[in-house]
Amino acid sequence: MSKADLHVHTSFSDGMASAQEVLYHVEAETDLDVLAITDHDDLKGAMLARELWANGNYRFDFVMGVEATAIEGHVVALFVEQPVPTLCPLVGVLEAVHRQGGICVIPHPLSRLTRSIDLGSIERVAALQGEGMHFDAIETANQSPAGRAGLRRAAVLNRERLRLAEVGGSDAHHLVCIGSAYTQFEGTTAADLKHCILERSTTGVCGTYPGFREIGAANVLRQSWRGLMTTPRRMGWRPTAHSFLRRIFLAR
Predict the structure, then answer these.
(1) Residue 9 has pLDDT above 70, yes or no
(2) Domain 2-251 listed as CATH 3.20.20.140
(3) Where are the domains of the chain?
């Protein structure tokens, strides 16, 4: 079985390492077969990483991705080439990703510690019948402190009701966290991975998350601040605030 980390950030958004540093680390320090770059609300980080990857001689395959901020929460879009709308209703994000043949993943599901899609929103999407209005996969492995919070409930929900593909991603913002959660799949390439997700034959696996000392207190504090600022920095303060207020209204 091969391994893919489907949720990794670079310094283009709120990660602490550049795209080049991420690629070098994955090559030298991990046994990953596929890497997805999923910076917040903009494909340019993944585009830069893919260009560097294509000009290198890396043993692992690469997937273009983005973590889009819908009003209801984050969506990880994979296998996308065109910009994905953000700060808009969730259905609009799902339709836009599927129109270009991409895959939609529910990241860090049901967590109250980050901008996660809640149970009500997941159920509303599950009840929809329109073309492209669906999720393809759900993270059942995510080793970030915020991501771990809802994983057990998400796994039960998926196995009893949703029946989506189960995947794993580290949600890494620090190099040492890459590969701490991953997706197992048959095959070796990004194309094999996509096929397995659509066939719902993947497995999310939690590995070992580095300790606080290994990451470093200063790095944790700096990244936390970058995380708070990343969407306003990319999208502007007024649209971000408007989206936040709409999310509060929808939660009532």
Answers:
(1) yes
(2) yes
(3) 2-251
